[in-house]
Amino acid sequence: MAYLVPLLHSKGNAMLAFRTLPLLFALSIPAAAAEPHWVASWGASPQARWDDSFILPAGVPASFERQSVRDVVRLSVGGKRLRIVLSNRYGATPLRVGEMRVALAGEGAALVAGSSRAVTFGGSVHASAAPGAVLVSDAVDLPAGALARLAITTYYPAPTPVSTFHWGGQQMPYLVGGNATAAADLPAAARFAGRAFLNSVLVEAPAAARSVVVLGDSITDGNGSSPDRDRRWTDVLAQRLAPAGVGVVNAGISGARLLGDRMGANALARFDQDVLAQPGVSSVIIMMGINDIGWPGSPFAPGDAAMNAQPVVEALRQLIARARAHQLRVVGATLIPFEGALAGTPFEGHYSPAKDAVRRRVNRWILDSGEFDAVFDADAVLRDPARPSRMRAEFDSGDHLHPGDAGYRALAQALDLQALMGKKRTRR
Prior knowledge:
Elements: E1 5-11, E2 13-19, E3 37-43, E4 47-48, E5 63-64, E6 67-74, E7 79-87, E8 95-97, E9 99-104, E10 117-118, E11 127-129, E12 134-136, E13 140-144, E14 149-156, E15 160-161, E16 164-167, E17 174-177, E18 190-191, E19 194-196, E20 198-205, E21 210-216, H1 218-221, H2 233-241, E22 246-252, H3 267-276, E23 281-287, H4 290-294, H5 309-325, E24 329-333, H6 353-368, E25 374-376, H7 378-382, E26 383-384, E27 387-391, H8 405-414, H9 417-421
Parallel strand pairs: 21-22, 21-23, 23-24, 24-25
Antiparallel strand pairs: 1-2, 3-20, 4-16, 5-15, 6-14, 6-17, 7-12, 7-13, 7-20, 8-11, 9-10, 9-14, 16-19, 17-18, 26-27
Helix pairs in contact: 2-8, 3-5, 5-6
């Protein structure tokens, strides 16, 4: 039988080309039991809070006490019931929740009238997660369609160090004093750039529903996209996949590396929790390695030795093996161009021609090795055909490292859905 693996090549414009992989209707629904099941619909990968010696500030409050946090999230796949998951992965003390409510989100911090529901844990509104543990709520009867926006409000009555968080300002929570879990709006709330403890939202979806996890760094996390607008490339991908009942979980961490820690644990260390533990996952996209190449010798990791291609390749091979052991389809994405990245900022030194040569060698392996089930040539989508080491100007957020809204949309639109959701290889 013929096999199709879409690859992207560029001569000015990204064009789809094909090599051999199984010819099948990739979005056809697999045989499944009639009962609905739990599927990961939204996620934010946890990070350990770093100290002030690092060049970037954590950007979130040091702790909460008698305060409420309202997070607004957009689901990918929908369902009739949902569960909220908090993470105390990096906490040294128990994480204590005084109360939590979830509602359909209106504008800003407002709730849709009549949609607020109490969230319980083992039948109680109070809950505690041990250090290193997650806290999964009881099922909440709140029907929410695909791409619905939720407002999740959590009250922390006791001193609560923010030891487990997710860095970045693509969707900023609201913070107020007192128990505001039932408040219809929070007009006087402060805001901060990141997530605190909120890890994922699961939905009870139809039997055939499943999800894709995107494991990545700041490109996946959406740096450079418009805040509070759901403009990451994974958001656009979720819009494309929603009609097929397929969810998208963003497991991107800004600054994340395959092999190094600092802004989050290395990919090999977090793969089990951030990818394999997600219920209903059937495919994983891996788009990582640019920080392993760019950080050494820069202000992010001034003492690190220069990276070469082989350790990056070996790390990717390990992730492929672990995905296959859990019957996941694994898609490899090439590393996007980054000439001039962060030039003229306190972070200058991220790019050099030697680093770009390493990126190109890694990309050649991703494209030609045949070790992934499918390949997404993100580099070809975004690169300037006149100068392939840099991003096309219309796709650049301005820092020459992260795409803007147009670049993220181009990435999501270029990904071939058949390659993403097709049948897993059985050889090797």
